[in-house]
Amino acid sequence: MFYYSLTTAVTIDGSSVVTLTGCRMGSTGLLRPLLSQAEAGYRFVAGCLTVAGRVLTTTAELERNGIAKVTTVAACGECTKDGDCFAPLTTAVIDCKCQCAAGGHGDVCVPAPVPAGPPPPPPPPTPPPPPVGECISDMVYPEVVQAVGGGLSWLCYRNVTFSGGGMRLTVLTGAMTGDVATVTFDGCTWRDGAVLLLLGNTYAAVGSLNIVVTGNTFHDALLSPEGVFPP
After folding, report:
1. What's the whole-number mean pLDDT along residues 130-154?
2. Which of the four pLDDT bands, split at 50, 70 and 90, describes residue 3?
3. Which residues, including other chains, have CB under 8 Å from residue 204's CB and lie 6 or more apart?
4. Mind listing the pLDDT tens digit for each residue in 194-207?
5. What is residue 231's predicted lDDT score, i.e. its pLDDT?
6. Beta bridge mates, 44
7. Distance of CA 190 to CAs 26, 162, 224, Å?
8. How many CB atoms lie within 10 A of CB 84?
9. How far is the C-alpha of 202 from the C-alpha of 229, rounded, in Å?
10. How far is it, in rounded angstroms, from Cα 223 to Cα 38?
11. What does the DSSP 8-state code read for residue 131?
12. 210: which residues sit within 8 A by CB, 6+ positions away?
């Protein structure tokens, strides 16, 4: 089903092509024109569109349903350079496959490489470190790769669930500060590939380090102390 919800219509230049084919469009077609302005030389290929259960086959039928300024009416089941490919960089259409000229990319011969898929979503936000004397508590932690502890003297997690193969929490104990630094994991659950890495450093700035891991449960997860720790 095709839904057109733009608040403004589309403006294209003379080198552009718009294709609208093979869609079911409800019972009313387009409530406003798709193209507002088009420079000389543009192409708008439309056809094989179903409105109120009926396939539109002519320019007049398309215009009555809000699809105006069409330069080429496409027939159902027909594959053409204009309707299915980026025509300027297509040499031919064979078995409904666009054959690209030099500089054409992807299935429809567009002028730039086509990404393999949508970009990955941004990583979920992570909680800020807790104030001294408080804990990050009673939550499911986002599945992230994160290093914590740098410049801090206090870290505490209580009743937090860490899960997933992408969950890797590295505590940079060697980068913590203060006369006494404290790291606490109390009653936390680690599962499904989650990793807790306690990373020490010969040149740690802290005078003394207290690490408390108590009441934690590990299911298919890893606790790994690495490096040199201060007393």
Report:
1. 93
2. very low
3. 173, 174, 175, 176, 228, 229, 230
4. 999 999 887 777 78
5. 66
6. 18
7. 49, 5, 12
8. 22
9. 7
10. 62
11. P
12. 180, 181, 182, 183
Residue holding tokens 């104990």?
A: 173
Give the type of residue at 212: V
Local structure of 174: helix, strand or coil: helix
- Which residues does residue 13 pair with via DSSP β-bridges, in sequence order? none
Q: Are 146 and 168 in contact (CB under 8 A)?
A: yes
Tell me how crowded residue 211 is: count the other CB atoms within 10 A of its CB. Answer: 16
Tokens matching residue 59: 């320019």
3-state secondary structure of 211: strand
* Token pair 């009673």: residue: 138
132: which 2 tokens? Answer: 């001294």
Task: Please spell the DSSP secondary structure of 71-128, one letter per residue.
Answer: SEEEPTT---HHHHS-GGGEEEEETTEEEE-TT-BTTTTBSSPPPSSPPPPPPPP-PP
Q: Quick one: pLDDT at residue 6?
A: 47
Q: Strand runs (DSSP E) across 103-207, as ranges?
A: 136-140, 145-148, 154-163, 168-172, 180-186, 189-191, 195-199
CA dist., res. 37 & res. 46, Å (int)? 17
Report the alpha-carbon distance of residue 63 to residue 42 in Å, rounded.
Answer: 17
Q: Rounded distance, CA 30 to CA 51, Å?
A: 10
Look at residue 61 and give its three-state secondary structure.
helix
Alpha helices in the chain (DSSP H): 59-64, 81-84
